[in-house]
Design goal:
The complex is a heterotrimer.
Chain A lengths: L13 H7 L9 H12 L4 H11 L3 H10 L11 E6 L2 H5 L2 H12 L12 E6 L11 E3 L2 E3 L7 H6 L3
Chain B lengths: L2 H11 L26 H7 L7 H14 L9
Chain C lengths: L3 E6 L2 H5 L2 H14 L6 E6 L11 E4 L3 E3 L7 H10 L25 H4 L17 H6 L4 H7 L3 H11 L11 H10 L6 E6 L8 H8 L1 H15 L3 E6 L4 H16 L15 E6 L9 H8 L23 E5 H13 L1 H4 L10 E8 L5 E6 L4 H8 L9 E6 L5 E4 L9 H6 L8 E6 L4 H15 L5 H18 L6 H16 L3 H5 L2 H9 L1 H9 L13 E4 L9 H5 L5 E2 L7 E2 L9 H5 L5 E4 L4 H5 L1
Parallel strand pairs in C: 1-2, 5-6, 5-8, 6-7, 9-13
Antiparallel strand pairs in C: 1-3, 3-4, 9-10, 11-12, 11-13, 14-17, 15-16
Helix pairs in contact in C: 6-10, 6-13, 7-8, 7-10, 9-10, 9-11, 10-13, 17-18, 18-19, 19-21
The chains are: A alpha+beta, B mainly alpha, C alpha/beta.
């Protein structure tokens, strides 16, 4: 795509102050700071991380190390709809890979990728704990259970 | 999801009686976060323990009767 | 006073199957009839039987309505709640039985369960501290406040409580070490970083009975002399976190948490830390690093956290289920508590029973029960009456046990001896359509992916093992691979830094031990009998069984199935993507798994 319309908005770095200030002077706060930054921006923009690290007097490299260690943090913007295919054991033996294969077939993205129009991001989770409904996926926290490959198209169509 | 409980208590009690164990049954009860009573927990289900009052007893019982599913529910 | 209490399961499993909509309609139907005031609706904790959700249990009648849909509610309200007649068609009906089960305690799923940890789940409003107190809550704390630290530790030791998070280390001993460790400050940490795929016990406990965790931690604090604790919970469990936060606020308001608890002079501060998605953080030293805000990588032990833990202070780490057991021990007394269980494994264990059993859900069983009883009596047997192949216990650190281990009692030592572990409590039953090689590959790809990379045996060793397993599942395996796998497995077990690496080879080792023939079949015959490894089988329709109903042709996304109506169909192996949709749809069981290139024998 790459058109003007889908370009991402400018990053407002003032928000970093709002996020970081309540944590100043406390210990063990790097993860909550990153969690709140991501809440604010939807992902972790590099300039925001740099500013936060400066304020907290932590090397950016250290913050980057933490951000890349945990699966929860994203360094690039993500889609409007987040698909999480459960790859827990129950889902695996009930055919979860057939579900993600079908999604890849339809959207042309694999795990960790985002469609060019930022409509979908595809992720895997280890277990969402709805094993009775296996195989399961969630889209924006809405669970879809007892999936079969032939139902995927219809479900994806219902998300803009 | 959790509003049910609180809303119910309000509707049912209309503020006439105590709604929760933390509310004092009468002026005899002094348990608060700041002035704690060591017998508080036992008092909730078997109280009052520091004074005799049928009325206060009934207030405690009313809290339990509202939510007890059956006769085995409350563990005395 | 309420006429009836309607306990709607509000745990994640039932929410996923629509219990929120059911509740909304319930509210509306009752209000429309002007009888809303007579009923108490509670979004309760998990009653366990996720398979048949959404569930409403009606008290005091103890009527169990299941598999509900918002459309069923009007009927139940009218017929049962207004006219007093139970609506039979929404009651539970065991598979292959015509007899409906009206009451909670008649349902076979519940008959062999013992509710210790889940005693309140589904029966109380988890957001009410009053109800927890009514159910005997905080009575154990009151008792512990009058006891000496040593005596509390002794009581937990006598009760025989062992860690419910994995290895089964005696909790009393762990507490004793932390109590004896010198330190000006000590911490209690609750490990709620339940990362095992296929496990959701801890989440259900936190969602269904959060005060039990708080009380357990308070007692542990008294036992080791700590005044501050952390609950480290996965961020993927938002409802659990919300419930716990609410419970902490209530306990503080009631003077059961905070300064000068119940006038005893004991202070306790409880914090919640949200994890950020790293399986290795379930390992205790990695978890501590994560609370400190660092990358969650483990460090060598000793020193153990009991000596040098959070910010280098002595720290006692236990799992959610372990803490949930503590109030019970102190309330009932160690001897009474220890009446349930076996000689070396006391009490109960909660399992998340899933996979190909009829009744999936959360179950709590006494230690010493056999696997068979769990799978067949509680779990109701294998779906579609297929053959049982194996049960996987303990997730990526555990192992697979075959049919001849069905009579094994479930306790720490028996399971370890058989090659599995109790683990945190995931239990997955598998049938003939589960490939054991693929399962080993699946678990290894999980641990490989979650390996933090700090130590070489785990980082590189699991990678090499995974490569071999991938090769075998793709039909490129060699017989000597099996020896290489065993060699690698034993080196990784011996030399990895933490529990993740040390246990990572278990799924491979147990499948090799009990299902070596399947590995050999993959390698020597290039055949996957379970129809999972795509290169190693084909589908064919058995003309004898096919009645030409055309059901399969409708689900085939690539139009690989052809044939006239009421005539046997054929699968074009060139077009077939082996998605398996047709197999699930066929009512005649006519679609067979065959060796590659042998379709002429079947399809004629």
């Amino acid at each position: 795509m790459g058109e003007e319309a889908t370009a991402l908005p400018e990053i407002d770095l003032d928000k970093v102050d709002e996020v970081v200030d309540p944590f100043l002077g406390k210990k063990g706060i790097m993860i909550p700071v990153l969690q709140n930054l991501q809440e604010e921006y939807g992902y972790l923009p590099r300039p925001a991380m740099e500013k936060a690290a400066r304020k907290l007097k932590i090397p950016v490299s250290k913050m980057y190390g933490v951000a890349t260690f945990y699966a929860q943090f994203h360094l690039a913007p993500r889609g409007r709809n987040i698909i999480r295919v459960c790859k827990g054991t129950a889902c695996h033996i009930q055919g979860a890979s057939k579900i993600s294969d079908r999604i890849t077939e339809i959207l042309g993205i694999t795990t960790g990728e985002t469609t060019e129009d930022y409509r979908f991001t595809l992720e895997e989770v280890a277990c969402i704990g709805a094993c009775a409904l296996a195989p399961v996926m969630t889209i924006n926290d809405n669970p879809h259970g007892r999936l079969t490959p032939d139902r995927i198209q219809e479900i994806l169509d219902s998300y803009e | 999801m959790g509003v049910n409980g609180a809303v119910f208590y309000f509707i049912i009690c209309g503020g006439e009686t105590v709604e929760r164990f933390i509310d004092p049954c009468c002026s005899e009860c002094t348990h608060t976060q700041e002035t704690p009573c060591s017998q508080f927990v036992d008092c909730c289900v078997n109280g009052p323990l520091c004074h005799e009052s049928e009325e206060c007893k009934q207030k405690r019982k009313a809290i339990m009767d509202r939510v007890a599913l059956d006769s085995k529910f409350v563990i005395h | 006073m309420f006429e009836k209490h309607l306990m709607v399961c509000g745990a994640t499993g039932c929410l996923a199957s629509g219990s929120k909509d059911v509740t909304e309609v319930l509210e509306k139907e009752l209000s429309d009839r002007g009888i809303r005031d007579k009923f108490r609706i509670v979004m309760a904790g998990c009653p366990g039987f996720c398979e048949v959700g959404p569930i409403i249990v009606v008290y005091p009648d103890e009527v169990f309505y299941c598999r509900l849909d918002p459309e069923n509610i009007a009927e139940i309200v009218e017929q049962h709640f207004v006219n007093g007649e139970i609506v039979e068609k929404h009651l539970f009906k065991p598979p292959k039985s015509k007899e409906v089960k009206r009451f909670y305690d008649e349902i076979p799923f519940y008959s062999k369960q013992v509710f210790n940890v889940l005693r309140n789940s589904g029966r109380v409003n988890p957001e009410s501290i009053d109800e927890y107190i009514m159910r005997g809550g905080y009575r154990a704390l009151t008792r512990a406040l009058d006891m000496k630290s040593e005596d509390i530790v002794e009581e937990v030791k006598t009760a025989g409580l062992r860690g419910r998070g994995g290895a089964g280390f005696p909790s009393g001993l762990k507490w004793k070490f932390t109590l004896q460790a010198p330190g000006t400050k000590k911490y209690i940490v609750c490990n709620a970083d339940e990362g095992d795929p296929g496990a959701f016990m801890d989440r259900s406990i936190l969602e269904g009975d959060p005060h039990a965790i708080i009380e357990g931690m308070l007692i542990a604090g008294l036992a080791i002399g700590s005044d501050e604790g952390y609950v480290y919970c996965r961020a993927e469990y938002p409802l659990a976190i919300q419930r716990l936060k609410m419970a902490i606020e209530q306990a503080e308001e009631y003077g059961l948490l905070g300064e000068n608890i119940l006038g005893s002079g004991y202070n306790y501060k409880l914090n919640i830390k949200e994890g950020a998605g790293a399986f290795v953080c379930g390992e205790e030293t990695a978890l501590l690093a994560s609370i400190e805000g660092k990358r969650g990588v483990p460090r060598p032990r000793p020193p153990f956290p009991a000596q040098k833990g959070l910010w280098d202070y002595p720290t006692c780490i236990n799992n959610v289920e372990t803490f949930a057991n503590v109030p019970l021990i102190l309330r009932l007394g160690a001897e009474e508590y220890a009446k349930v269980g076996t000689e070396n494994s006391k009490g109960t264990k909660v399992f998340a029973l899933a996979g190909k059993v009829n009744n999936t859900g959360l179950v709590e069983v006494p230690m010493g029960i056999t696997i068979k009883e769990i799978v067949y009596d509680v779990g109701g047997g294998i779906q579609k009456d297929r053959a049982f192949k194996a049960v996987q216990i303990g997730g990526p650190s555990g192992g697979c046990l075959p049919e001849d281990k069905l009579d094994l009692p479930v306790d720490y030592d028996s399971l370890t001896q058989a090659g599995a572990i109790m683990g945190s409590g995931g239990m997955i039953a598998m049938d003939e359509f589960t490939c054991m090689v693929d399962l080993a590959r699946y678990f290894l790809s999980f641990t490989q992916n979650e390996s933090c990379g700090k130590c070489t045996p785990c980082r590189e060793g699991t990678k090499r093992m995974l490569e071999i397993l991938e090769r075998i599942t793709e039909g490129e395996g060699k017989l000597e691979d099996l020896d290489t796998l065993r060699d690698l497995a034993s080196s990784i077990k011996d030399s990895s830094l933490c529990g993740l690496g040390q246990t990572a080879p278990n799924p491979v080792l147990t499948t090799l031990r009990y299902f070596e023939h399947e590995y050999r079949e993959h390698i020597e015959e290039k055949y996957c009998r379970s129809g999972i490894c795509k290169e190693l089988f084909e589908y064919a329709i058995d003309p004898e069984s096919c009645n030409g109903c055309r059901a399969c042709t409708k689900v085939c996304a690539v139009d690989a199935i052809s044939g006239e109506k009421k005539e046997p169909h054929k699968i074009d192996v060139e077009l077939c993507t082996k998605c398996g949709s047709c197999v699930d749809r066929c009512r005649q069981d006519a679609i067979k798994i065959i060796r590659v290139g042998s379709e002429a024998d079947v399809q004629g």
